[in-house]
Amino acid sequence: MNKNRLSALPQIEVLVQNNIIEKYIQPLSRPLVTETARSVINKLRISILNDGIHVPPLDEIVNLLEHELSILEKNRLQRVINGTGVIVHTNMGRSPILHDVWREVESINCGYSSLELNLDTGKRGKRKGLIPKLLSTLLKCEDALVVNNNAAAVLLILETFARNKEVIVSRGEQVQIGGGFRIPEILEQSGARLVEVGTTNITKAEDYVRALSEDTAIILSVHRSNFAIRGFTSSPTLAELSDIKPEGVVLCVDQGSGVMDEDLPGETSVRTHLSDGADLVCFSGDKVFGGPQAGIIAGKREFIEKLEHHPLMRVFRPGKTVYSLLESILVKKMNGEQTAVTEKLGRTVEYMREIGETIIAGINPEDISIVESTYTTGGGTAPDESFPALSIRLNLKEQPHCILKRLRDAHPPIIGTISNDMVHLNLATINDTDTGHVRAELRKILEK
Q: What is the pTM of this model?
């Protein structure tokens, strides 16, 4: 009897051609929509055979399929509006890239490029472009190279100089950053041996001196990403470490945050580390620098050249998109232009208020108001620092997590936070070009 009911299930192609389902073909592709429809029908078929349920009406089956497709569509990478007050937000792609930069490199990425072509000789060139010269000029160092992220930069340095040798790291700097990247584990992966010195809060220069041996390859100083140690603390300066470092030992700084020459509270810039005696400094291109995901290593030419010739360099090297974006951003930065990150870091409270008043104009102030708040740099940068900001606060009877869900269902989604049981949209990270969309979505919520 149950098997006879199966004939009432709609054909896959009938579902795919349904007006409600057909709209998902463009964002998801016809094969994926078809495969999802087949999966929904198979589940119904099993329930009919095993549980004896009746075949649902066509509109219910369409609703089931649409629900599955909507979940898939949300998994597709898409633009979101950041109302969290975290400027370099790892979950949202870290640094935004300015439209001017993206347009400038469009033709390079949409056509052929001189990525590994020497235009002077017409022969094969090196995949570096102008980036080493630009970085050397900006940071006042001898040379630089680019890999695909900062974790790769750290691993490449350890593999090149410290395999089967010792690396000295302070106990207070054996960090774990987001995604489970742990300094002790990356050392183990590289074949290096970790030598711990000092304590969590106190490490002295003489601790490093006592740990030095014939097997010491690197003294590694690590950026304390996402946390700060306060109170009774002490650690040697990089200049002190440079003074005690024997010849042949590499003094390396995992600076991480991408603060190149900016004056950002709680951060030491790459340029300062280099001038204080670091042999190599590595950092992220997609944090404060405001570029694409990349790991940048700057320092002395003799060490950079060894890194370039390591077999892993071919594994870690980025492609034309990263190189072209980095070049464009570096030139603009050196000409005094802002990046998307530095623009947001430089926003005034008055500017935020203008954006906020545009959004809430004409809306009942008992429902929505502008309140004082703070923003943070994010991305592990200046973890102990916050700065004055303003937020839009929604004072509604609806549960705040339900409001956040409705904001995330917008196109594009709007991402907010909950504070004191109310939804907040931080104006430090909302672009002025998105005010109309945010206003429209908030009005929809109020109308319901």
A: 0.90
